[in-house]
């Protein structure tokens, strides 16, 4: 695919056939497998089958999930277009991080690794192809990307730099074949470790510069002090010293016959009472749940099987999802990564799992209470409200019970105020619809091997975590307490929020 994508416009010409769709601004994503010829030589049939499976199970669904359109696949690669540069880069990150998990079971020589380039350009889009310099630039970025990496142009960077939980490494301006002006290139660093490493490099450079400035200022000050002392010494040496004055003898003071009475002791002062320390932050309203056993899962979807009995210990869950007001208290304390927009009493959105963990860590620190994310089992137990029906209110959809795409007559364009619908039997609001809600657990394709004690199902370095509840953008099937979904750990998404829990 390498030559085919790189020369896609030079081979066909920059002008499409007559009757083409008018120009539009789009984010173009070009992906290609590194070392595809070598992989085919090692195992032609096996590699072909794996690539087709990846396209079917990962590439196509991920593009659709991020509101993109797959233009075409070309053997070992693909081209897709997006209206949003943010969603285009998110899509690239999710594909690359999902491939890490897929390659884990393979020997290194059999790894399938994509290079991905993303560019924002004015292009001409047909039903099965796309034309323009914007495509060529995306293809060139893919061509210079390292395996497993996402490279973006400066135009994309300017659009997304404050909207994703990412670091960015500038690779400078690059001369692109057949493109007149150089293109500014950035490498995306999707994981917090890489982001922190890049940030530490910048901080160390600033610290070094500051130290150099202080050292220079200190040296200048020291030189000035030495010069002034030398000048003062020279002045004093030139001033004549007067003869010593004759001391006058002072008559002795009369002897004291009786000591003065000792002063009266000061009256004892009672110590001031210790001030009562006010709460450092307003805590979310919590609902105490006594715990118990319940049948977790359902037979409605393969990811919800097998149905299994789980025993949950007593705990408390926040009455509502975390709101913009609560989130922005954390942001004001510089403990959360962004300031949320929207109404104060609406649920916070566009939150990654990593963001949610930062919030609960801050809340626990400020309140001195062990706040945390709920486990997946705790969330489903709380959402069911003591019922085992399809929804907590019964087996049939009822209007006005949840905020989802086809749950009400009105179509919501955004999440509405928390608590706008009825609570479930446990007194919890918005446990279905509203916003997707992060839980502690790593993502698993089903419940085979899941813990039975209500604890979180986690492994080290899992790249995706579980989401529950569905959102205002999803249909009623997502509102079911048993429904489960997952998303990349470090990537923000507009429908993702969370609520908090605390052990009793």
List keywords for this structure.
single chain, 504 residues, alpha+beta, Alpha-Beta Plaits, paralog of FGE (formylglycine-generating enzyme), 8-stranded mixed β-sheet, 4-stranded antiparallel β-sheet, 31% helix, disordered N terminus
How does this structure look, described?
With 504 residues, the chain is of the alpha+beta class. It has 2 domains: 2-195, Alpha-Beta Plaits, CATH 3.30.70; 286-503, paralog of FGE (formylglycine-generating enzyme) (Alpha-Beta Complex). Helix content is 31%, strand content 19%. The protein has helices spanning 2-6, 8-12, 36-42, 44-65, 85-103, 133-144, 154-160, 192-237, 324-332, 353-367, 376-384; strands at 23-33, 68-73, 77-82, 114-125, 130-131, 150-153, 167-174, 183-189, 286-289, 292-296, 308-312, 315-318, 371-372, 436-442, 464-468, 485-488, 496-498, 501-503. The strands form 4 sheets. Strands 1, 2, 3, 4, 5, 6, 7 and 8 form an 8-stranded mixed β-sheet that branches. A 4-stranded antiparallel β-sheet has the order 9-12-18-13. A 4-stranded mixed β-sheet has the order 16-15-14-17. Helix 3 (36-42) packs across helix 4 and helix 4 packs antiparallel against helix 5. The model is unreliable at 1-14 and 244-260 (pLDDT under 50).
């Amino acid at each position: 695919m390498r030559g085919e994508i790189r020369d896609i416009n030079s081979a066909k010409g920059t002008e499409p056939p007559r009757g083409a769709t008018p120009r539009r601004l789009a984010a173009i994503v070009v992906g290609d497998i590194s070392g595809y010829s070598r992989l085919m030589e090692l195992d032609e049939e096996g590699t072909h089958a794996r690539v087709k499976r990846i396209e079917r199970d990962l590439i196509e669904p991920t593009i659709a999930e991020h509101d993109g359109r797959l233009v075409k696949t070309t053997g070992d690669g693909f081209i897709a277009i997006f209206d949003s540069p943010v969603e285009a880069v998110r899509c690239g990150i999710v594909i690359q991080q999902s491939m890490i998990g897929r390659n884990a079971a393979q020997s290194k020589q059999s790894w399938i690794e994509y290079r991905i380039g993303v560019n924002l350009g004015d292009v001409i889009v047909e039903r099965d192809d796309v034309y323009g310099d914007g495509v060529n630039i995306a293809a060139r970025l893919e061509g210079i990307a390292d395996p497993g990496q996402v490279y973006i142009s400066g135009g994309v960077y300017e659009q997304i730099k404050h909207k994703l939980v990412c670091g960015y490494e500038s690779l400078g301006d690059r001369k692109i074949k057949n493109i007149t002006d150089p293109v500014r290139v950035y490498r995306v660093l999707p994981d917090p470790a890489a982001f922190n490493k890049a940030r530490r490099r910048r901080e160390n450079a600033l610290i070094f510069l500051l130290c150099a400035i202080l050292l220079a200022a200190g040296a200048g000050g020291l030189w000035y002090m030495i010069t002034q002392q030398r000048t003062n010494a020279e002045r004093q040496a030139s001033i004549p010293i007067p003869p010593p004055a004759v001391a006058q003898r002072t008559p002795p003071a009369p002897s004291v016959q009786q000591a003065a009475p000792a002063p009266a002791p000061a009256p004892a002062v009672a110590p001031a009472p210790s001030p009562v320390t006010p709460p450092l932050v307003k805590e979310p309203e919590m609902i105490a749940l006594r715990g118990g056993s319940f049948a977790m899962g359902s037979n409605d979807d393969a990811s919800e099987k097998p149905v299994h009995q789980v025993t949950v210990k007593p705990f408390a869950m926040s009455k509502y999802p975390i709101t913009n007001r609560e989130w922005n208290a954390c942001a004001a304390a510089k403990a959360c990564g962004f300031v949320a927009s929207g109404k104060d009493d609406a649920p916070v959105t566009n939150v990654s799992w990593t963001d949610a963990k930062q919030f609960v860590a801050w809340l626990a620190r400020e309140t001195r209470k062990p706040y945390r994310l709920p486990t997946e089992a705790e969330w489903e137990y709380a959402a069911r409200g003591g019922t085992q029906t399809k929804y907590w209110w019964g087996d049939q959809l009822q209007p006005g019970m949840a905020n989802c795409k086809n749950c009400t007559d009105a179509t919501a364009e955004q999440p509405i105020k928390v608590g706008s619908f009825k609570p479930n039997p446990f007194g919890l609001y918005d446990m279905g619809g509203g916003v997707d809600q992060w839980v502690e657990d790593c993502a698993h394709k089903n419940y085979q091997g899941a813990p039975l004690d209500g604890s979180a199902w986690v492994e080290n370095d899992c790249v995706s975590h579980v989401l529950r509840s569905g959102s205002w953008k999803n249909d009623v099937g997502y509102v079911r307490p048993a429904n489960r979904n997952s998303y990349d750990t470090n990537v923000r998404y507009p429908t993702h929020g969370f609520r908090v829990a605390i052990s009793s």
